[in-house]
TrEMBL record:
The keyword Signal applies. It is found in: Cell outer membrane. Residues 63-211 form the SusD-like N-terminal domain. Belongs to the SusD family. Residues 1-20 form the signal peptide. This is Glycan metabolism protein RagB. GO terms for cellular component: cell outer membrane. Coiled coil: none annotated. Keywords: Cell outer membrane, Membrane, Signal.
Length: 589
């Protein structure tokens, strides 16, 4: 969220004072629910500050790098939690992917906020105060839906042949509350998500922008003036939860529910998921509105430097605050550029990028040359992955990752060297300099939702519902979406993309293509770990790399993946199962 300076300061203060109390008994003098005198009547600081605490708990996929626990990446950081679970140490009491504590803490804060909103005089102007209350209530419902979605993604699963969700908590849990609640069904959780999102949309504007005149004020806000509208819903609040964001989260939740791992426990269909995604895409402007520079959203320097407070680039639907730093580069630049080379893309992922003509490298028509494996490939390959001979850093330094290379960038040379023959390039600003004599920072931001994700959500769901070229009641098909995404990437431009044209006659072939495009477009943004599970696909493909000696590449196995079949669903935390007899664990855990 990009908010005004005072809001950020308040968030920091609330986070330091409140979030550190998550796992211990709250002290009476610091707990508003236990000590009503802690704040003055009508004091807006309390509910708004608690709401900001919930905002601060939104997970950011892009920086988690749980890709390390998939076939897309490994890490040279031997203490990495995702490395440990990928190699057989994932248990109910060792789960770096758990959302139980974080999301339930956020939901507690949100429930507290809901209980306080109508008690507060938000401004001295009564009509504007009601609008503020309406807006903040809408934000709170929307965020509660979001955190319930995160809980389902991480903890829903099969127990005694029933697909269960998580306990639904709609009230403030004080010290005397009954915490021993059973898990709701997956369907009940989905209905709660949809209900909260419906309420959010009823109360929120589509976006926070100052309006031209009162004539465009939605009727749901009543007879108010432009000044009143702008005070409650204007551009000053960009970055907070909106009606557009609610629609996007509905798309994400529905896609999860319709997927093979969860479809048996819900009434949500592929058609529902497609229609929810289409609603967002239509607001964006349709297929043609796919951002032309969306593949490089993280490094579009002039676009990023020119961002107004809270404004989004064309690729981004919702983002976090931006900041000037070099943390990602410090962790992931190769050693010769003073980085730690932490995230190493795999040969598995490299092989998933097609040739520039659109054919997979295994297709006889592709023209793939194993002796020159990076030539004539999908341009996204070298954008996202630093291959042997590729360039990186502010001086476009050539990087030698070969096993017989002479620098520390070489395969397995030192602790910070690549383990796969590749380094990460995506997400990194190549204009960051880590040289201690001339180091600099650059602006970065973390997206919560990218539009490309929503376009891909539609493609997947529409193909399953109506086939590659079907559109239901919408004006575009899965084929239309994938054609636009591949064209933007620079794939199939010279030959009309015959591989895509052949795929549009087969739902099964289009499914393979859509899943692969999702893998490429969203790589290193924290999606594949969950995608493999909701698709019920193989989790145990070993991570592979390449060893280049005397210019000749040879495939190598880098790391086994040790997941059991039941691990398509994550566990309920072991400590919670011990404490609360009503909780059922997912099968296998």
């Amino acid at each position: 969220m990009n908010m005004k300076r005072s809001m950020i300061i308040l968030l920091a203060a609330v986070f330091m004072l409140a979030s550190c109390k998550d796992l211990i008994k709250p002290e009476i003098e610091n707990n508003r629910e236990l000590n009503p005198d802690a704040y003055l009547p009508n004091d807006a600081r309390f509910p708004f500050g608690i709401l900001l605490n919930a905002y601060n708990r939104i997970p950011t996929n892009s920086w988690s790098f749980n890709d390390v626990a998939t076939d897309d990446a490994v890490t040279n950081d031997q203490s990495n939690g995702y490395l440990k679970i990928a190699t057989g140490q994932w248990t109910a009491n060792n789960n770096p992917l758990s959302q139980w504590t974080n999301s339930y803490a956020a939901i507690q804060y949100l429930n507290i906020t809901l209980g306080e909103i109508d008690k507060v005089q938000w401004t001295t102007d009564e009509r504007v105060s009601k609008l503020f209350a309406m807006r903040i209530k809408g934000e709170t419902y929307g965020l509660r839906a979001l955190f319930l979605y995160y809980l389902l993604q991480a903890h829903a699963g099969m127990s005694n042949s029933t697909l269960l969700g998580v306990p639904i908590v709609l009230d403030v849990q004080g010290t005397n509350a009954n915490f021993n609640n059973p898990r709701a069904t997956f369907e009940e959780c989905m209905k709660q998500i949809y209900s909260d999102l419906d309420k959010a949309e009823e109360m929120l504007p589509l976006d926070y922008e100052n309006i031209a005149s009162a004539a465009v004020i939605p009727t749901k806000f009543g007879s108010i003036t432009k000044v009143e509208y702008d005070r409650a819903f204007g551009s000053a609040f960009r970055g907070l939860f909106t009606g557009r964001i609610a629609k996007a989260i509905r798309s994400k939740a529905a896609l999860l529910a319709a997927s093979p791992a969860f479809a048996s426990g819900t009434s949500t269909t592929w058609a529902d998921a497609a229609n929810y995604a289409a609603a967002v895409i239509n607001l964006k402007g349709g297929v043609s509105a796919l951002a032309a520079n969306g593949t490089t959203w993280y490094s579009n320097a002039s676009e990023i430097s020119g961002l107004a407070d809270g404004a989004n680039p064309g690729e981004i639907l919702w983002r976090g605050n931006y900041g000037d730093n070099r943390d990602l580069e410090q962790s992931n630049y190769p050693p010769s550029l003073f980085g730690s080379g932490r995230i190493n893309p795999t040969q598995n992922l490299v092989d998933a990028f097609p040739m520039a003509n659109g054919y997979p490298i295994a297709d006889a028509a592709s023209g793939y040359d194993a002796a020159n494996p990076y030539n004539n490939r999908d341009p996204r390959l070298k954008q996202y992955i630093l291959v042997n001979g590729g360039t990186a850093g502010p001086n476009s330094t050539a990087i030698n990752t070969a096993a017989d290379g002479t620098t520390n960038d070489a395969l397995g040379k030192v602790e910070t060297s690549t383990r796969t023959g590749y380094y990460l390039r995506k997400l990194l600003r190549q204009d960051v300099n880590l040289n201690p004599t001339s180091a600099n920072n650059q602006r970065h931001y973390k997206p919560h939702i990218r539009y490309t994700e929503i376009y891909l959500n539609y493609a997947e769901a529409a193909n399953e519902a109506w086939g590659p070229t079907g559109a239901g009641a919408n004006s575009f098909s899965a084929y239309d979406i994938i054609k636009a995404i591949r064209k933007r990437a620079g794939v199939g431009l010279s030959n009309g993309d015959p591989y895509l044209e052949a795929a549009k006659s087969s739902k099964e072939q289009m499914r393979i293509l859509i899943k692969n495009e999702r893998r490429l477009e969203l790589c290193f943004e924290g999606y594949r770990f969950w995608d493999l599970r909701r698709w019920k696909e193989n989790l145990t493909d070993a991570a592979r790399g390449v060893s280049i000696k005397n210019g000749q590449p040879t495939g190598i196995k880098v790391e086994d993946r040790q997941f059991q079949p039941y691990m398509i669903y994550g566990p309920i935390p072991y400590g919670e199962i011990l404490k609360f007899g009503e909780l059922q664990q997912n099968q296998g855990w």
